[in-house]
Every structure is written in C-alpha cells, then in structure tokens.
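Entry: Carboxypeptidase
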Amino acid sequence: MCVALLLLQFGTVHPSPSHLRINRLPGQPHVEFHQFSGYITVDGKNQRALFFYFAEAEKDALSKPLVLWLNGGPGCSSLGVGAFSENGPFRPKGEALVRNQFSWNREANMLYLETPIGVGFSYSTDTSSYEGVNDKITGKDNLVFLQNWFVKFPEYRNRSLFIVGESYAGHYVPQLAELMLRFNKKEKLFNLKGVALGNPVLEFATDFNSRAEFFWSHGLISDTTFKMFTSVCNYSRYVREYYNGAVSPICSSVMNQVSTETSRFVDKYDVTLDVCLSSVFSQTKVLNPQQVTETIDVCVEDETVNYLNRKDVQSALHARLVGVQRWSACSNVLDYELGDLEIPTITVVGKLVKEGIPVLVYSGDQDSVIPLTGSRTLVHKLSKELGLKTTVPYRVWFERQQVGGWTQVYGNILSFATIRGASHEAPFSQPERSLVLFKSFLEGRPLPQEF
C-alpha cells in the first residue's frame, strides 16, 4: 500500500478539492473538522449551478456516514435555514458565529444543498431557468448535483448515504431517492441507506386538512369555526383557490374567521411559542398562504440573513450573487409550479420501502402547518397497504430524563416519531431531542425506551 493511501486511511491527508475548502468563516470559533462550500454545475450549456455547504463530522469523519440535508419551501435555503438556523455547526450571533452544541455533524458528514436553481446562492445566468421550475426539474438537478459532487469528493462515493429534509422536502427527498435507485440499476453509485422526512408534505389533502383538528384540539379555534373549517371550506380547498388566484367568498369568510380566532400573534409553525420568528424559520409562506389584507410582522432581526449578506462571508464561502442584490432565506426569483404541491409523494415513500430503504417520518408536535396527525395517518395507512406489522408499538421515547416524543415502527423499516415541544423546524426548537432522533435513525436503532 502506498504512503499516500496509508496517510489517507488514517485521516492525515485530505484529497478533497482545495479551491472549495473554507479556511475559516468570519467570526468562527476554532474547530478541528473540515468545511467546504462552492458550486457544482448541473447544466453547463445554460450555466446553471447549485451551491452547497459541507461540514465534515466533528470526529472520525472517515468512518461516519454522509447525510444530504434539504430544506423545503419550495424555494428556501438549506444553508441559511438548515445549516445556520437548525442543525449545522454554527449559528450567527451579532458579528460572530457560536457553536451549536447539538449540531448534526457530531454524528455525520453534513452536506447542505441550496436547491432548486434560484434559491440562495444557486443561480443560472439565464433567468428563464427560474420560470416553471417543478419537482421533475428539481429532482433531475439534485441527482446531477450528487453525481458531480462525488467527482469532487470521491472519498465519499462508497460511504453510507442518508437523505434528510423537512417541509416541502417531503417532495424533494423521496423523488431524489427514487431517481438514485433507478440510476443504480445502470451504474452503482449511491449507497443509499435511509430517508428521513420532518413535518413533510406527503399528501396534499390529508396534510393540509389535518390543520383544522390541530387548531381545534389546541384551543385555537371555536367549535363553530371548526365545523365550518371542515365542512364549508376546508384548508386544501382554500389553498387551491388561493394559488389559482380566485378565493371564493365562502372560503374567504371561513379563513377570515380562522385567522381572527387563531390570531396573527400566534406563530403557525410553533403554536406554543411566545415570540414571533423571523421569516428565515418559516420555510416561506407557500405552505401557509395569508389573506391579502394580513400583514406579516417580522419582529426579530434576522442575524442569519445579515451574516450571509456580508461580503467577507460570501468570499469565505466561495459564493457570489448572480442576478440578485441580496441573499435571502427564501427565493424571490423562483417561480415554482405549485400544482406539484397536490401530487402525492407518500406513494413514492412506499416504493422506497419496497426497495428495502428505511424511511422515518417525524413531526415536531407544535406545528400546525403540517401537523403530526396528518403525517401519522399517512404512515399508518401506508404500513397497512404494504402489509407491514407493527414491530415497535406506539410508545414514548426519552431524551435524558424527559419524554422526547412518541414513536411507532412498522416492519423494522417504516417509522413514525414525534418530537415533543418541537416546531415545524424541529432541530431549531428542540435541538437536543432532534439530535437523539437523528442518531437513532442513522444507527438503525429504535428510539430510547428508557433513561
């Protein structure tokens, strides 16, 4: 065995591309792990490139799995929302960065992708690339990104690979996983070991219409309004009308009443939160469209947005702004085909399970936008369709000496779990519990049954 290979095996030589290496982010505390960021071209002809940020595992990076993280929207940034607000190694605080002690790179090599084109620092020099973007285009681009990323980082090619995402990534993640399995039949490239979906959009009507029961059960709406919200105009009908540009008078009336009772001073992504969150944490308003008359009160300064718009930070990240003046958490230029919202992806999840890919669906239990009740219903229904028996009956799981949430497992391959006290962005609101869930998922073990 040559000396270079021996050194690589023991972690003292790093073959990854030096031009993508982050020497140090401005205001960053000292760390031992490597960081990389930059662009991977997915379409040379139209100069379309996706931006990524990659934080290797804190320790034993060579033995830890690779995890691709995708935020939803559609149109929100995995860099700003996922990495810098949820489960990445740092969070902006003032002019500096502070360590996130519950960062997911404690357990894995974390790859954050700003997708689709037009999100964050990802760009095309042809602005028509931002029009009519849909799930099919996004899935294909994400597949090409990973193929080309492995060319730059060949040492990760055979590593155990997991894909994790939240919100509209309930579309992105299963669709990408299905494309990877299809690609593997021609050429074995992806060592896919599992998929996890947080508060995901999986089936439009079930997910959206579970909101009424969630509001009512948490005391946010009256009995009368609950009845109207489930019979006169349900939420899926309202969303469909809203995006078709013609909200009917009856739906407008019902939604005005729902909005009045729930109050704009309650964050729909975390109904127990005492303060409102800035836009960076809300996965855009696509899943939570507002009445035209309602104003969104952003009541805290967004440190992530400020940080990522600094020239020295962009330089350190090897990032640039193309066709936009400012980096934003959720894209202002992307025109996404919102009809795709209604295409169910729970069927794709079923295909993954049939192919032997473990799937975890988890829910922050304080989220009213994609409530746990809809996700639990969909997973249970899928288990019956696939003929999977319950292997872990519905029970609590623990983080330290507290209940971390509830879980149920079917056929040791399909799992559902809640994260107690967590919002739509579970790793932001319950970082320690989310890390426990993440670690169990990677290791293929049931969530802790005792403390």
